[in-house]
Design goal:
Number of helices: 6
Distance between the termini: 37 Å
Order of helices and strands: HHHHHH
Structural class: mainly alpha
Number of domains: 1
CATH topology: Four Helix Bundle (Hemerythrin (Met), subunit A)
Low-confidence stretches: 1-7
Helix content: 55-70%
CATH superfamily: Cytochrome c/b562
CATH class: Mainly Alpha
Largest sheet: none
Length: 147
Amino acid sequence: MASATGIAYAQMKPEAAIRARQSIMRVMSLNFGPVAGMAQGKIAFNKDVFATNALRLESVWAMNVAAFFPAGSDKPVAGSKIAEFTRAKPEIWSQPDKFKQAQDTMTEAVGKLAAAVKSGDEGAMKAAAGGVGKACKGCHDDFQAKP
């Protein structure tokens, strides 16, 4: 089944791939913003909100965003409503092993965040959120063009 899914993603039209990955990243951002704010002390810590958002990150990340970078999805799709732009750098396709490592780092960080939430330890939750932020930044620094 996994190979059939991989084939399906590889055959995805560039516009659909760009739209999917941008949607996943947007949901990640919307949920991580409050988590990061609480972890950094910029907004009041609310364990329930933190936990809800952190566990959403785990669920959304499980959608395997890396699968939505098939060959041919590196350029904007002119005339499309959503995929008119992409900030994906060519290094995603020229350095696939490095890109996979960045995805694996994020997967590990999100897993640690979920485990910290399940432990209920506020300090561990905040520390794990820092790991997610570091993983996000590391991938974006290497593979996302600046606006």
